[in-house]
Amino acid sequence: MENWLAQGLAVFVISSIVTSLAKWAYAKAGFWNEKLGLAMNRAELRKVQHLALDKSNLVQFLLTQLLWCFCFLAIAAMVAPLAYATGGLHWLGVVVTIGALAIYGCVIFPLGMIVRIRKGDSYLQRQIARIERGEKFFETRRSSRRSSDDSTT
Questions:
Q1: Which residues 6+ apart lie within 8 Å of 1 measured at CB?
Q2: 42, 71, 97, 142: which is deepest, by most CB within 10 A?
Q3: Buried (b) or exposed (e) across 121-131, using 16+ Cβ within 10 A?
Q4: b/e per residue, 62-72, with b = 16+ CB within 10 A?
Q5: CB-based contacts of 135: which residues, under 8 Å, 6+ apart?
Q6: Once rounded to an integer, what is the mean pLDDT over residues 145-152?
Q7: What are the φ and ψ backbone dihedral angles of 34, each rounded to 5 degrees?
Q8: Is the Cβ–Cβ distance between 138 and 41 less than 8 Å?
Q9: Is pLDDT of 112 > 60?
Q10: How large is the average pLDDT for residues 55-77?
């Protein structure tokens, strides 16, 4: 602590760099998060439209989800004796993760899709409007980026 002014200046410079990098990373992550959200909305809309076309599509979807449920249960059945034989406590995270995936894959995701299908056209219109808003946002962002590039040259 001989030279507290130099230490303070070094801390200021380092914290400024870290803060500006964090701000840049957050802006990039937000952009990718928005792109990912738009892609997920499009995929969800395609899936709901596909399932709503025919009842056999819905039956196939539900049977696929049931198959995933049996896969999670098989993994749990394989992990359980191993967890018991080795003391078990360090396997708790694995068991909780498998249980959460089983609940999501067997119950929450299929029920969510069935609810979306039952909402019908109102859900489809809201989802299409949400996708159009996202595409408009990216188009305005792209055009503003082009105009800023043109003004700098």
A1: 7
A2: 42
A3: eebbeebeebb
A4: eeebeebbeeb
A5: 38
A6: 69
A7: -65, -40
A8: no
A9: yes
A10: 88
Burial class (CB in 10 A: 0-12, 13-18, 19+), 25: exposed
Q: Would you tell me how many other CB atoms lie within 10 Å of the CB of residue 144?
A: 10
> Residue 95, exposed/middle/buried by CB under 10 A (0-12, 13-18, 19+)?
middle
Q: What is the CA radius of gyration of the chain?
A: 25
Residue 145: pLDDT over 70: yes
**CA nearest to 135, candidates 23, 33, 10, 35:** 35
Q: Are 117 and 52 in contact (CB under 8 A)?
A: yes
Per-residue confidence band for 107, with pLDDT thresholds at 50, 70 and 90 = confident
Percent of the chain scoring above 70 in pLDDT: 90
Residue 56 pLDDT class (50, 70, 90 cuts): very high
Q: Please state at what angle helix 121-152 crosses helix 4-53, rounded to 10 degrees.
A: 140
CA distances to 7, 9, 35, 63, 121 from 15, rounded to whole Å, are 12, 10, 30, 54, 52
Give the C-alpha separation, 88 to 65, whole Å: 29
